[in-house]
Amino acid sequence: xxxxxxxxxxxxxxxxxxxxxxxxxxxxxxxxxxxxxxxxxxxxxxxxxxxxxxxxxxxxxxxxxxxxxxxxxxxxxxxxxxxxxxxxxxxxxxxxxxxxxxxxxx
Length: 106
Description:
This protein is of the alpha+beta class. Helix content is about 25%, strand content about 15%. A hairpin with a 5-residue loop joins strand 2 and strand 3.
C-alpha cells in the first residue's frame, strides 16, 4: 500500500513440493522485508505464454491470508490481455483463521 514493489519468479525443483511460485516468492520477499498482513495493495501475475494464468491453490491460500478481500489480483499475458479479480472473487470460499476456532453447538 506504500507503493513499494516486490518481484518474484517461479523457482522450480526436482522435488515439486520444494518449488515455489512467483506469487509466494514476491509475497515472502515483502514479509521478510518487514511487511505484514493487510499491508498489500495489489498483486500482478504474468505467464510467459498467451494464456492468462491464475494462481495455484497454495498461492491463493497465501493471498487470502495476507491480502484484504477487496484487493486486486491482476493476471496478464505478454500480449497485454488481462483479467482482474478481487481476492474475494479469486478465493470465494477461503479457509482462514476463523476455520481454526473450535465451535460446539449444544
